[in-house]
Amino acid sequence: MSDRVETLEFQAEARQLLQLMVHSIYSNKDVFLRELISNASDALDKLRLESLVDKDLPADTSDLHIGIEVDKDARTLTVRDNGIGMTRDEVVGLIGTIAKSGTAEVLRKLRESSDAAASQELIGQFGVGFYATFMVADRVTLLTRRAGQSGGTRWESAGEGTYSIEEVGDAPQGTAVTLHLKPADTDDNLHDYTAEWTIREIVKRYSDFISWPIRMTVDKPGEDGATTREEQTLNSMKALWARSRDEVDEAEYKEFYRHVAHDWADPLETIHMRGEGTFEYEALLFLPSHAPLDLFSPQGRRGVQLYVKRVFIMDDCDALMPNYLRFVKGVVDAHDLSLNISREILQQDRQIHAVRRRLVKKVLATLKDMSAESYRTFWTEFGAVVKEGLLEDPDNTETLLELVRAASTHDPAEPTTLRAYVERMRDGQTEIYYATGENRATIENSPHLEAFRAKGYEVLILTDPVDEVWVERVGAYDGRTLRSVAKGQVDLETEEEKEKAEAERQEYADLLTFLGGALADSVKEVRLSTRLTTSPACVVGDAHDMTPTLEKMYRAMGQEVPRVKRILELNPAHPLVTGLRKAHGEGGDTAALTETAELLYGMALLAEGGELADPARFTRILADRLARGL
């Protein structure tokens, strides 16, 4: 038996939202099912809480669950729960009227957004996700009965500005929402929501970790060819992050990691944490054991999955994890966010920033506490990315410097920490010396290292492109300046050696002046070197000049930078250099001396792995000299 049917108008903002949903252009219409399941889950949570508070509540809580029912002939989809339910006034208040503050702002953003993906993320942000049903349905019917009450309410609308409502006497406890589905339209991304596999995929993607069972009756073929009907639970309900660590075994962590990371290998490390206080959240994060193929791709996946009260909100939530930790996989479940909160709002949310800071500190602390073997694997795979943090995250610079591992001349195989380098520094040494280059072999054979090797100074060998930048940006570690062996003047000499070098500078003054003029187009200065012991010459930069490798990196990114002239340093003890001084002092052929200067400069460039400006000319001059020497 039912009372008279009333037809009411939606409140103005609700009508506007309905029009957006009915005429939706949003590409991801699947979110309607997430919204209905989320509402059902909330209703079950509320009933469980109310039954605990009111022991005398006449409600059945023996089998709380969410049901999905499909009628392919009638093309209907029903999402049903046996939760708290609603009264007639609650139906009108919650569905017919949008009384939440900020709804007008949501509508404005939805109308103005040119990004369909970003727009659909706003759906339901202020508790209006129910309206997403009109993206896929021509008509929606809701039947509900408040737990503990005898009468129910039926609500129905075609999304055209009005709805009908009536009281009914035979409604079961809870809420059932029935969608009279639009025809499937692949061009409009409107799927067939009566198809079992479609529903399974949506539930798995968005609602797998809802804590209540989501059940659906499906066809099951028998051995004799007959088909039987069987009720199955579609979601795993394994919200591992909401359980304490001692309740989860390692196999469950590994299985969950493979699910969220789409990885075939086991994780290197698992981080399970809970944040309490003004903003509650749970996080289950993983450090992979190998780098993904898109680690350095601008289009690669970034960030972790975001859930709100166990409801999936978005993949790749980069607001929760900085770019230099983009390899971290896992889930963050926030308790106090709205469903479908947009990326834009996340980026500006102060609570999200606070969670991000805690997550970063926890990840870095976990890295610091890893075993030597595990960390060696991690650094091999992700070290180059972690060093990007030295450019992006000034708040954690000190921590990141402690995590850095670098090859060095101290050990041919084992990398060193900066702390260990400092502990091995020689008496009187105040700077940490490093060399950058494409690979270890090139650096170790570079003339820049000769004096350091001869005098027993350790040099860090840095071969990642980011090394060119972070050492300049950071500048120092533990009060010791980071100093390139290929830039500026090198002061490794004793007082006696300095006196000898000063006398040599007087002897070579005329030759240095001549060479500076002859090579003026290529170098800014020619001077004697204190860093060479066996090579005749090397090319170095001024203390604050950009390195050639960094120049090349900027140009590869499309940024034009002025060409930086470098300094040619000569080894006054090398026979080629002493012979050149003698020839110049005796008034030798200027053209021949100039060609020798070009060869000397070219050899210095090649020795450090550089590129000749005119390889053909260098080869011709060298061939002529070799021919005359035969």
TrEMBL record:
<dbReference type="InterPro" id="IPR001404">
    <property type="entry name" value="Hsp90_fam"/>
</dbReference>
<keyword id="KW-0067">ATP-binding</keyword>
<feature type="binding site">
    <location>
        <position position="81"/>
    </location>
    <ligand>
        <name>ATP</name>
    </ligand>
</feature>
<comment type="function">
    <text>Molecular chaperone. Has ATPase activity.</text>
</comment>
<dbReference type="GO" id="GO:0016887">
    <property type="term" value="F:ATP hydrolysis activity"/>
</dbReference>
<feature type="binding site">
    <location>
        <position position="175"/>
    </location>
    <ligand>
        <name>ATP</name>
    </ligand>
</feature>
<dbReference type="GO" id="GO:0140662">
    <property type="term" value="F:ATP-dependent protein folding chaperone"/>
</dbReference>
<feature type="binding site">
    <location>
        <begin position="125"/>
        <end position="130"/>
    </location>
    <ligand>
        <name>ATP</name>
    </ligand>
</feature>
<feature type="region of interest" description="C">
    <location>
        <begin position="553"/>
        <end position="630"/>
    </location>
</feature>
<dbReference type="Pfam" id="PF13589">
    <property type="entry name" value="HATPase_c_3"/>
</dbReference>
<dbReference type="InterPro" id="IPR020575">
    <property type="entry name" value="Hsp90_N"/>
</dbReference>
<protein>
    <recommendedName>
        <fullName>Chaperone protein HtpG</fullName>
    </recommendedName>
</protein>
<dbReference type="InterPro" id="IPR037196">
    <property type="entry name" value="HSP90_C"/>
</dbReference>
<feature type="binding site">
    <location>
        <begin position="101"/>
        <end position="102"/>
    </location>
    <ligand>
        <name>ATP</name>
    </ligand>
</feature>
<dbReference type="Pfam" id="PF00183">
    <property type="entry name" value="HSP90"/>
</dbReference>
<dbReference type="InterPro" id="IPR003594">
    <property type="entry name" value="HATPase_dom"/>
</dbReference>
<feature type="region of interest" description="A; substrate-binding">
    <location>
        <begin position="1"/>
        <end position="343"/>
    </location>
</feature>
<feature type="binding site">
    <location>
        <position position="35"/>
    </location>
    <ligand>
        <name>ATP</name>
    </ligand>
</feature>
<keyword id="KW-0547">Nucleotide-binding</keyword>
<dbReference type="GO" id="GO:0051082">
    <property type="term" value="F:unfolded protein binding"/>
</dbReference>
<feature type="binding site">
    <location>
        <position position="343"/>
    </location>
    <ligand>
        <name>ATP</name>
    </ligand>
</feature>
<feature type="domain" description="Histidine kinase/HSP90-like ATPase">
    <location>
        <begin position="28"/>
        <end position="185"/>
    </location>
</feature>
<comment type="subunit">
    <text>Homodimer.</text>
</comment>
<feature type="binding site">
    <location>
        <position position="100"/>
    </location>
    <ligand>
        <name>ATP</name>
    </ligand>
</feature>
<keyword id="KW-0346">Stress response</keyword>
<dbReference type="GO" id="GO:0005737">
    <property type="term" value="C:cytoplasm"/>
</dbReference>
<keyword id="KW-0143">Chaperone</keyword>
<dbReference type="InterPro" id="IPR019805">
    <property type="entry name" value="Heat_shock_protein_90_CS"/>
</dbReference>
<feature type="binding site">
    <location>
        <position position="86"/>
    </location>
    <ligand>
        <name>ATP</name>
    </ligand>
</feature>
<dbReference type="InterPro" id="IPR036890">
    <property type="entry name" value="HATPase_C_sf"/>
</dbReference>
<dbReference type="InterPro" id="IPR020568">
    <property type="entry name" value="Ribosomal_Su5_D2-typ_SF"/>
</dbReference>
<dbReference type="GO" id="GO:0005524">
    <property type="term" value="F:ATP binding"/>
</dbReference>
<feature type="binding site">
    <location>
        <position position="39"/>
    </location>
    <ligand>
        <name>ATP</name>
    </ligand>
</feature>
<comment type="similarity">
    <text>Belongs to the heat shock protein 90 family.</text>
</comment>
<keyword id="KW-0963">Cytoplasm</keyword>
